């Protein structure tokens, strides 16, 4: 067998794996002794706390009705003043503290909260549970962003109305624009409105990192006060993510603890620079870095869309974590939207249907392409396998298809490949021509290409036209890169035979091949 090239595959550092692979999993393990302890304490604590919580709600609801009586939520809404504001910030906040105390929460507050004139926006992270609402109580019931549907929730809907939330409607196509305008209007009101509290991550994580911050809170370009929330408990009974305990299980486990500690830390406000005022993305990134440094955790480019891909992966019988790609980074660098990634996930699921763990080996890669394992295929597989572990996950597959395969899938490349197969130049590829070339290029004499030929021959005419060849290549871009990889190997072997001893490409390669390889695996940021 002719010697293969040996070279270090160029990789963009920015597309390497994140520090935290899956921030959406809750993996608390309950030992037998822990379960027994929770049951024994729960028998006593859960009924008592349930009664106390009911009593607090019986007092809180009529107070919230009085506060919001004849106070509009839509139209020309004005901030609460006078007795309404006093009752909301004092009475309702006190009842809220009592409610969480009855649930067993021990609140530790660090730092100092500034006023709305000094920092109109409160950015809270990491967001990891429905218990995070305690931050609203500690912060004096600032405004929040809430779905319109939440107002219709029995009892709690009335509590939400006390916050005078910025309302979001999924049915209104202009909802996002209106929400941003309302946040900006309140943030620049000069202290007339209470502070606006936002969880910029937009979804719950396991607090192992800070994921991408949504831009909404940072578009106004006003000072932002970062607020950290921690749950430093030996047993984690609060983390509510996409994989793990359900809400009722977490509620029962929390009520069964003697107490649950929550730390809320107000960091100094961050005043944006002129550059950050013009770029909400930059401001959001800067605030996230400040919070991550204070927490001592890394940052990743995961976002809510990764959660949607996780659900899609589960529907396609893949492990849910197979759908994680760091959507923010991958979509920006590769110019892909969620629908594109969902389509790529379907293709990956087809390839990975027979493998376990959502990772493809070279044998499964070859089986999907209906080709034997050979040097050309091994090199293509190595280009996909970015971390060199001998398998391809969905993230590597998306990057490989986008950076390697689609750029190689041009009409010129397809025309060249078609002409190589069409040896008699009659604009048709017969089964004999197709099989003969593949046997020669792959070095396998007994190769059976009937199945692949029939798949390309869409009309079953017994020969392949260029239109059929091109249509197949558009939906199977891996073959185009396989072809260009074969040409690169042929060129390399020809040069090596012409000048033996000149090419030791294990670190002493000339710049030509390196630039060529870099171009195949690198896309400008």
Write the SSE topology.
Layout: H1 32-68, H2 82-102, E1 105-111, E2 121-125, H3 134-138, E3 143-147, H4 156-162, E4 166-168, H5 175-187, E5 196-198, E6 224-230, H6 247-255, E7 260-266, H7 274-278, H8 280-295, H9 304-315, H10 327-334, H11 338-351, H12 362-369, H13 375-384, H14 394-408, H15 411-421, E8 429-430, H16 431-442, H17 450-456, E9 463-464, H18 466-475, H19 478-498, H20 511-521
Parallel strand pairs: 1-7, 2-5, 2-6, 3-4, 3-5
Antiparallel strand pairs: 6-7, 8-9
Helix pairs in contact: 1-2, 1-4, 9-11, 13-19, 14-19, 15-18
Structure characterization notes:
It is built from 20 helices and 9 strands. With 525 residues, it is α/β, with parallel strands linked by helices. The chain has helices at residues 32-68, 82-102, 134-138, 156-162, 175-187, 247-255, 274-278, 280-295, 304-315, 327-334, 338-351, 362-369, 375-384, 394-408, 411-421, 431-442, 450-456, 466-475, 478-498, 511-521, and strands at residues 105-111, 121-125, 143-147, 166-168, 196-198, 224-230, 260-266, 429-430, 463-464. A 7-stranded mixed β-sheet has the order 1-7-6-2-5-3-4. The two termini are 38 Å apart. Mean pLDDT is 81; it is low at 1-10 and 502-525. The protein is elongated. Helix 1 (32-68) packs antiparallel against helix 2 (82-102), helix 1 crosses helix 4 and helix 13 packs across helix 19 (478-498). The longest helix has 37 residues, at 32-68. Helix 4 links the parallel strand 3 (143-147) and strand 4.
